[in-house]
Design brief:
Radius of gyration of chain A: 12 Å
Largest sheet of chain A: none
Number of helices of chain A: 4
Oligomer: heterodimer
Strand content of chain A: under 5%
CATH superfamily of the largest domain in chain B: Ribonuclease E inhibitor RraA/RraA-like
Number of strands of chain B: 11
Distance between the termini of chain B: 29 Å
Largest interface: A-B, 19 and 21 residues
Order of helices and strands of chain A: HHHH
Structural class of chain A: mainly alpha
Number of domains of chain A: 1
CATH topology of chain A: Non-ribosomal Peptide Synthetase Peptidyl Carrier Protein, Chain A
Strand content of chain B: 15-25%
Shape of chain A: globular
Number of domains of chain B: 2
Helix content of chain A: 40-55%
Helix content of chain B: 25-40%
Distance between the termini of chain A: 14 Å
CATH architecture of chain A: Orthogonal Bundle
Number of helices of chain B: 8
Largest sheet of chain B: 9 strands, mixed
Radius of gyration of chain B: 20 Å
Chain lengths: 88, 224
């Protein structure tokens, strides 16, 4: 999956999650290296929904070790995880 | 989820760095509480793996059949419907489990030889202990593994169990990697918060803005 398409899909999902939670982040710009947790649009309690979305989007299970945790915090890191040769 | 023992061992190692509390907090909708007062009888702090359930009524034969059939890496789950339970697992049983490469043994019932179990490197958790051994071997089972009904909670073959000092829970096999990943993130964020408390010298109330929250002037936050 191309990075642009992946990023657009994930950002759309994140913004929908926030909308469902009653927060309007439609105008928030999320860069590839933006820390999603520091921005407040993802928390450790909502990360499971994002993981399941990415698994459904890409058809691959997210399976990471402690060394790869930082990749979860940014869109760019998430793409590194799902691209061919990245973390499965 | 793969049944490969190496893959199971890899996920087990990841769980040991996370814990049941984090799995539950991060994936509350995907976990099922296992309502059993299980305690480690082998000294191992945790146990996890796909379950191979068997049901017995104080009879050793189903337990022995299940031990023989449990694949490497899997957790043998023995549900004893008799109460009080006679001992269904002891040091010889656990030694075989070790040699067979099982991921552990959980007994909703009793075990014995606890001193010896502590020297056998296979996790054994049980709800009780007695030196009175189960004596009968009458109840041959024709099907293994089976689902076990624990008062409203059904244990299904292949479901994963996770247990530690905080309690026990189960997760469907298809969700295990996602639940572990979410738990790992939560654990990482919690460690970051603890480091922040240490390095800044600020209290939890200060770091989370508790006073402002109580006074209605802000959100309760460190964004874990």
């Amino acid at each position: 999956m191309e990075q642009v398409a992946f990023t657009e899909a994930v950002v759309s999902h994140i913004k929908q999650m926030e909308k469902d939670a009653g927060r309007d982040v439609s105008q928030v710009v999320i860069e590839p290296d933006t820390n999603l947790f520091d921005l407040g649009v993802v928390t450790s309690f909502s990360i499971i929904r994002l993981i399941l979305f990415i698994e459904e989007l890409t058809g691959t299970a997210i399976d990471l070790s402690n060394e790869e945790l930082d990749q979860f915090y940014t869109l760019g890191g998430l793409y590194l995880m799902i691209r061919p040769g990245g973390v499965r | 989820m793969s049944d490969n023992p190496d893959d199971i061992a890899q996920l087990r190692a990841r769980f040991e760095a996370i814990g049941c509390s984090q799995l539950s907090d991060a994936s509350a909708d995907l976990i099922t509480l296992l309502p059993l007062a299980l305690r480690s009888r082998s000294g191992h702090p945790s146990i996890c793996g796909p379950m191979f359930p068997v049901v017995t009524n104080d009879d050793m034969l189903p337990c022995l059949q299940a031990l023989a059939d449990t694949p490497p890496g899997w957790v043998l789950f023995i549900h004893n419907t008799a109460a009080p339970s006679e001992a269904l697992v002891g040091d010889i049983f656990a030694t075989s489990a070790l040699v067979q490469g099982l991921g552990g043994i959980i007994v909703n019932g009793a075990v014995r030889d606890v001193a010896e179990l502590r020297s056998i490197d296979v996790p054994v958790f049980a709800t009780s202990v007695t030196y009175v051994s189960a004596r009968t071997t009458d109840q041959k089972v024709s099907e293994l593994p089976v689902s076990a009904d624990l008062g409203g909670v059904s244990i299904k073959p292949g479901e994963w169990v996770f247990g530690d000092d905080d309690g026990f829970l189960t997760v469907g096999a298809s969700r295990v990697s996602a639940v572990l990943a979410a738990g790992a993130i939560l654990r990482d964020r919690e460690e970051q918060l603890k480091r922040a408390i240490h390095t800044t010298g600020e209290s939890l109330a200060e770091l989370t803005g508790l006073d402002a929250f109580v006074e209605g002037r802000g959100e309760l936050g460190w964004k874990i």
